[in-house]
Amino acid sequence: MKKAELKFDYADDKMRRKGMQKAAGLPGVDSVSIDAGAKKLTITGDIDPVDVVITLRKLCSIEILYFGPEKEEKKKEEKKEEKPEVHPWPYSYYCPPYYSPRLLEWCT
């Protein structure tokens, strides 16, 4: 999977729509998204940047900002807290002498 970020200078919404349609129609494209404020077009998939630029240059000016492997978001690993081992208490606090020595330790 490769990711391409392009500066996409379009004049109006009609050009933006046509550009997204042409980009989505290219072979190997998985997803196309656009950031309208920054005028940035992001294309992911198994793509060739030369084909993308040649296709979209027919509509308006294009600049390649980034092309490379898709960056994977690093997930924060949650640290598991080690809880101390808790022994259950016997049902009564009185321990008759015939109980095993292990149970006598719990009673005291």
Class per helix and strand makeup: alpha+beta
Q: Largest sheet at a glance?
A: 4 strands, antiparallel
- For the biggest β-sheet, the strand order reads 2-3-1-4
Strand content: 25-35%
CA distance, first residue to last residue: 64 Å
Tell me the Rg in angstroms. Answer: 32 Å
Overall geometry comes to rod-shaped
Query: What is the ordering of alpha helices and beta strands?
Result: EHEEHEH
Number of helices: 3
Averaged pLDDT, please? Answer: 81
- Give the low-pLDDT segments: none
Question: How many extended strands?
Answer: 4
The residue fraction in helices comes out at: 25-40%
Summarize the structure.
The chain is of the alpha+beta class and 108 residues long. It has three helices and four strands, in the order E-H-E-E-H-E-H. The chain is rod-shaped.
Describe the protein's topology.
Blueprint (H helix, E strand, L loop, with lengths): L1 E8 L3 H12 L4 E7 L4 E6 L3 H9 L3 E9 L31 H7 L1
Antiparallel strand pairs: 1-3, 1-4, 2-3
Describe this structure in words.
The protein is α+β, with helices and mostly antiparallel strands and 108 residues long. It has helices at 13-24, 49-57, 101-107; strands at 2-9, 29-35, 40-45, 61-69. A four-stranded antiparallel beta sheet has the order 2-3-1-4, covered by helices on one side.
